[in-house]
Input
Amino acid sequence: MTKDKASVLLIYTGGTIGMKEDPADQTLKPFDFGSLMQEVPELRKFAIQIDSYTFDPLIDSSDIEPGMWKKLADLICSKYDSYDGFVVLHGTDTMSYSASALSFMLENLGKPVIFTGSQLPIGLPRTDGKENLISSVEIAGSMESDGSATVPEVCIFFNDLLLRGNRSTKVDAGGFDAFRSPNFPPLAEAGIDIRYNRDLIRRPSGKPFSVSTDMDTAVSILKVHPGITERVVEDILLGRRTRAVIIETYGCGNAPSRDWFLDIVRESASRGKILLDVTQCLRGGVNMDLYATGRALKDAGVLSGGDITTESALGKLFFLMGKSDDNEYVKANLEADLRGEISL
Ligand code: ASP
Output
């Protein structure tokens, strides 16, 4: 059964996209999404019913916390049956973190949740915000001939590319081409038409949609670098309140092979902490069997993050640790592909 008109809920959290110049004093102020159709008349051309929800207060995404992800997940859950898709307007700085976290929190998702934003405010003449918003709404409202959603995933749409959210990362601080998913092809590209890569898009499991908002944030990130000191490694890997550490390593998962480093890793693992090896490289992933230094980490009890991004590893850990106090449960699920976030 197909419907005449799709419906999309536009959720505004803050960030650059929602700013408009106030003619009175030429300063940038948040845009009133109640009058969206007047401001972005192009949206009228779609046969899509668009409603909006604005968070109060609006925030720069540098201030995003897991509490905001919970609010977003709960909002989507409460409106899930009323809309065909959701567009989340979000600052670019932490958009990949939020899209990754939401991809885990929204379980058995059957509808699109498209994050977008812009590098220039929507109210400025050269804005990238209008294109990003218009295409995101079109994607969120897009359905297949059987009435199912074309993209039932949490995604980021930015500068003509639709990316799986938990594969994305911000790669440019100033350019319009700000996001990439280096280890996974785009799910769609917008040109004259929006060309969907249907073979890559995940289909819903058929189980009922639910949200999981319990998160445990006792995670640290240790980025290895030449000159890293024993004291710093110790503080992070043996920190009393830390339950898991993402070790950001070189290349395909390598870290210093000095005895003191490996001793601390072993001690941390023997205390039951969850240690995950994630590469600092943008493309490719961890293969701990390739070099002796990677193998030493594996033997010390570190798990492989494969080609996962740090943003996604963080969201996955928060989510899995929120589900269970048992670190063995978390470890068992960490290396599994839950939402298309790693290539196995
Ligand atoms: N600092 C802003 C934010 O992330 C930047 C942006 O929206 O692009 O909220």
